[in-house]
Design brief:
By secondary structure, the protein is an alpha/beta fold. It is built from 15 helices and ten strands. The chain folds into two domains: 201 residues, Periplasmic binding protein-like II (D-Maltodextrin-Binding Protein, domain 2); 94 residues, Periplasmic binding protein-like II (D-Maltodextrin-Binding Protein, domain 2, 3-Layer(aba) Sandwich). Strand 1, helix 2 and strand 2 form a beta-alpha-beta unit. Helix 2 packs across helix 11, helix 2 packs across helix 12 and helix 11 runs parallel beside helix 15.
């Protein structure tokens, strides 16, 4: 009887060891993915807390340790889609440009959502108190079709405004330029993300709408690629997603390093502003980067293309790689939070 119990115990222990061993092997395989391509050209729309995990991952060497060199550049949203289509850029870490290009017939998709909750803030001139104060006025925003435009149009339509007549949107290359137009008095309103939103608030301009508090969901920034690139280089993209998630964890666990990277790229030296933007990042950085179809639908509803609203949201994203990465890697980085 004792021998049988011992044999049973040994058998159970053996099975446990085999099961545990298979998990170890699986994890090791993911760490040892062989990239089909050893260099990635990655473009980002802006610098700031929304992009901080990517900057941290890049500077900490989380991509290079897996055999992929990442070259980071900043491009405007309007130029990003063509850069992806032409192959000048492999990954665009940005906003709605990927969706707009897909609506226009280009085969671009999101493979992950680094952020899917809006941090946009709408400001007015001092003395303004509501969005209604901006009727008939000009609002400084970023590129045509970017999330600033989408959010403002959504708010206007909810009030029954004729967007073409009741608002004048002033477009800019990026948030710094939009902020410059606003503070110089050449626009009555401003819609931007951090750190420019913090700069405007610190100068006493009133917040008319906080879109994070309003619950607006958008994929911004998302990880956009050409579908052909996804099909050709799946391991390389998995490595990118894994490295990015390493950057999320490092940003959360090591605030001092995150502040240092934020200061380096944004040129912000004010400790309070760095802390404020960091706290905002903590609210919106995704550990599970699965793309939510509803965050796509918001963009389609505000598209200038009348056919966009009828399009299936599934054509704009592919969650296959991030689901694998979540299962095999992110679930270990963030146990209990990602499956």
């Amino acid at each position: 009887m004792v021998k049988m119990l011992r044999r049973t115990s040994v058998t159970i222990l053996t099975l446990v060891a085999l099961l545990f061993g298979s998990e170890v092997v699986r994890a090791a395989q993911n760490f040892e993915l062989k990239p089909e391509k050893d260099r990635l050209e990655v473009a980002i729309a802006a610098y700031g807390p929304l992009y901080l995990p990517l900057l941290v991952a890049h500077e900490a060497g989380y991509f290079s340790k897996r055999g992929v060199t990442v070259n980071l550049t900043q491009v405007s949203a309007t130029a990003s889609a063509q850069a992806l289509i032409s192959g000048q850029v492999d990954i665009y870490q940005g906003g709605a440009a990927t969706i707009h290009a897909s609506v226009g017939g280009q085969d671009l998709v999101y493979i992950g959502a680094a952020v899917d909750r809006s941090t946009l803030m709408l400001f007015g001139k001092k003395g303004m108190t509501t969005f209604d104060n901006l009727r008939g006025k000009s609002i400084a925003t970023t590129s045509v079709g970017a999330f600033g435009e989408i959010a403002v149009k959504k708010s206007a339509k909810e009030r029954g405004w004729d967007v073409a007549k009741d608002l004048k949107l002033l477009y800019h290359r990026g948030p710094p330029e939009a902020l410059g137009t606003f503070v110089s008095g050449n626009a009555e309103g401003l819609i931007v993300t951090p750190p420019q939103s913090d700069m405007a608030r610190n100068q006493g301009y009133p917040v008319l709408i906080d879109y994070y508090e309003q619950g607006l969901r958008i994929v911004g920034p998302g990880t956009g690629v050409a579908r052909s690139f996804l099909q050709k280089y799946p391991n390389t993209l998995k490595i990118f997603l894994m490295g990015y998630l390493d950057g999320v964890k490092r940003s959360i666990d090591d605030p001092a390093f995150a502040h240092k990277m934020n200061a380096r790229y944004t040129k912000i030296s004010d400790p309070k502003m760095l802390e404020d933007t960091y706290k905002l990042g903590l609210l919106v950085w995704n550990k599970d980067m699965t793309v939510d179809p509803e965050a796509i639908r918001v963009v389609l509803e505000q598209s200038k293309n009348p056919k966009a609203i009828e399009m299936d949201t599934k054509r704009f994203f592919d969650n296959s790689l991030i689901r694998e990465v979540n299962r095999d890697y992110a679930s270990k980085l963030f146990p209990g939070e990602v499956k």
